[in-house]
Amino acid sequence: MSMPDSRFGVVIVGGGHNGLTAAGYLARAGKSVLVLEKLDQVGGAAVSARAFPGIDANLSRYSYLVSLLPQQIVDDLGLEVSFVGRRYSSYTPDPANPATGLLIDEGSPDATAASFASIGAPHDEAGAFAAFYQDCHRLTRALWPTMTDPLVTRSQARAIATRAGAGDVWDRLIEHPLGEAITGALHSDLARGVVLTDGLIGTFAQAHDADLQQNICFLYHLIGGGTGEWRVPRGGMGVVSAELERAARSAGAVIATGAQVLAVASHRTHQTVTYRQEGSEHLVTAGIVLANVAPDVLDRLSGDQPPAAPKRPNHQREGAQVKVNLLLRRLPRLLDETVTPEAAFGGTFHVNETYGQLQHAYEQAAAGRVPDPLPCEIYCHSLADPSILSPALRDAGAHTLTVFGLHVPDRLVTEDNNEARRNELQAAVFASINSVLAEPLQDLLMPDAEGNPCVETKTTLDIQRALGMPRGNIFHGGLDWPFVEDDAPLDTPAQRWGVATGDPRILICGSGARRGGAVSGLGGHHAAMAVLEMAEATQL
Fold first, then answer.
1. Could you read off the pLDDT of 87-133 as tens digits, one per residue?
2. 304 pLDDT above the threshold of 60
3. How many domains, the chain?
4. Are residues 244 and 367 located together in one domain of the fold?
5. Is 173 part of any domain?
6. Domain boundary among 202, 226, 250
7. CA–CA separation, 286 vs 300, rounded Å?
8. I need a labelling partner for 43 at 20 to 30 A (CA). Which of 63, 138, 363, 425 fits?
9. Mean pLDDT of all residues in the chain?
């Protein structure tokens, strides 16, 4: 067994977008950097793929929208990326009468108000809905600038909010369950559900849970850029990772794909990382190891040594979604004839996601059953950015759809039932969506080169197998507040940047870092900033 020795200042375990971000910053600062990625391409969940044989459609296979990537990172690394905004925020058919629905049109407050009236909402509900988000934005605009700085404490964050005139919003969104804020502001069950979904994406929780995990998820969905606008990456999510890879390589970082890390070991003066590539094992030494893997994965790589990752209960949380990618011959017709498919699918299309339905779905899943109906959200990349389709597909009127099914906790999926459960979940997705369409979605599926319908369904177990995310959790575990408690230790650079583990020379640089999660680059940025602060002491 050949194990040639080599040494780098920093070895990054995992070539997801956060690892590439860290590599770019550190290589630009003159550090010797090696990135080890087990897959044949970098990017992790932030990739594009031709998911269907013989079909020239470049789908954002896992993650699909961008909100939390700071412009600072784009500018610092010289990324040539652009993002497309969307006029329509969301469309939600009324499950009690799918011939009507709520269209949130950011370009026309009058049209939005008329849509509220069409679903029988109270006369002032449109204003209350707008005021609710205006209040939220007072808080998120105040907190967003802290996301690229060292961590602040709870008291400091609250003081920032108070100075911005958002102290009352802090109390409603940070100190009390999200359900109280929603039900206190809105009366329509449908409108309440539209708001609540932002607290449940990838999170198995209820509106009134005392641990406030739903509040944390909600804050992350609204804090990006201060406004929470989710934008479409032009060319697909793979463009973002490709640009991060280019920036890292051009600065001198070494990136190895097909390199499966087997172990990370701590020594008095250095770290060692063992990995397998092309059938051979190799050993590399480093001054610092950055773990762009989930904390649970880092624990396993650490072996018999003291666990490297901090033991936070949130890191044990399961994923709670099913992901379905589709390619259609055209957009489907709606039961609601007052809204065009282009408008309905131009933002987030909510299906069976009223406030009451979301609670009922949670209860069904907690009892071990697939929710019926299954709450779903649909996103159409090709409407905002047709470039992901070949000219022939565009000319033919084809469109991609990404479906994200909520309240599908990992506990429902096992090694033994995964295939059957995948089929069951796919059928549940189609049944839920078809309940608001004027024609079956299955009839619009484009066939691939082998004659099979263009549909790809991923369970939490499928995601774990493909990307190494424990229990299919898209955040590498539960999210944490983007601040620390007042008594939290902030003595070291790693602690101040929210990337510390139990080992001072091993840092978390992925979504498991505090303020990690989603496609943001924040985990990688923060780990790089901590390393640069440590540089003189560690003599990298």
1. 999 999 999 999 999 999 999 999 999 999 999 999 999 999 999 99
2. no
3. 3
4. no
5. yes
6. 226
7. 19
8. 425
9. 95
Residues 296, 311: Cα–Cα separation, whole Å: 9
> Which of the 8 DSSP states describes residue 151?
P
pTM above 0.70, yes or no: yes
Q: What angle do CA 256, 521, 85 make, to 5 degrees?
A: 120
Between CA 443 and CA 341, with CA 98 as vertex, the angle to 5 degrees is: 55
At residue 3, the pLDDT reads 37
Q: Is residue 65 included in any domain, yes or no? A: no
Which pLDDT tens digit goes with each residue over 400-457? Answer: 999 999 999 999 999 999 999 999 999 999 999 999 999 999 999 999 999 999 999 9
At 491, is the secondary structure helix, strand, or coil?
A: coil
pLDDT of 300 above 60: yes
Question: What residue numbers bound the domain in which 418 lies?
Answer: 87-121+318-472
> Same structural domain for residues 453 and 322?
yes
In angstroms, the first-to-last Cα distance of the chain is: 29
> Between 154-163 and 125-143, two packed helices, what is the crossing angle to 10 degrees?
120
Residue 380, in any domain of the structure: yes
**Average pLDDT of the segment spanning 465-488:** 95
Give the integer Cα–Cα distance in Å for 323 and 306: 35
Q: Tell me: the pLDDT tens digits for 381-390?
A: 999 999 999 9
Nearest to 93 by CA among 443, 441, 402, 437: 437
Contact between 451 and 344 under an 8 Å Cβ cutoff? The reply is no
In this structure, are 347 and 426 located in the same domain? yes
3-state secondary structure of 297: helix
By the 8 A CB rule, do 108 and 343 touch?
Answer: no
pLDDT tens-digit map of 171-206: 999 999 999 999 999 999 999 999 999 999 999 999
Contact 426, 455 (CB under 8 A): yes
Residue 68 vs residues 225, 230, 375: alpha-carbon distances, Å: 7, 8, 24
Q: Widest CA span of the chain, in angstroms?
A: 74
Alpha carbon distance 159, 176 (integer Å): 18
Q: Which of 527, 519, 407, 432 is nearest to 48 (CA)?
A: 519
Do residues 237 and 47 lie in contact, with contact meaning Cβ atoms separated by under 8 Å?
yes
Collapsed DSSP state (helix, strand, coil) of residue 500:
coil
Q: Within this chain, do residues 168 and 240 fall inside the same structural domain, yes or no?
A: no
Pure H helices in 367-459 = 381-384, 391-396, 418-434
Q: Assign residue 522 the CATH number of its domain.
A: 3.50.50.60
Whether the CA torsion 476, 248, 245, 273 is positive or negative: it is: negative
What is the spatial distance between Cα 195 and Cα 412, in angstroms, rounded to a whole number? 26
Residues 159, 167: Cα–Cα separation, whole Å: 8
Phi, psi torsion values for 100, nearest 5 degrees:
-130, 160
Cα distance between residue 468 and residue 395, in whole Å: 38
Tokens of 391: 């000219």
| Span 151-180, average pLDDT | 98
* For residue 4, pLDDT beyond 90: no
Check pLDDT > 50 for residue 540: no
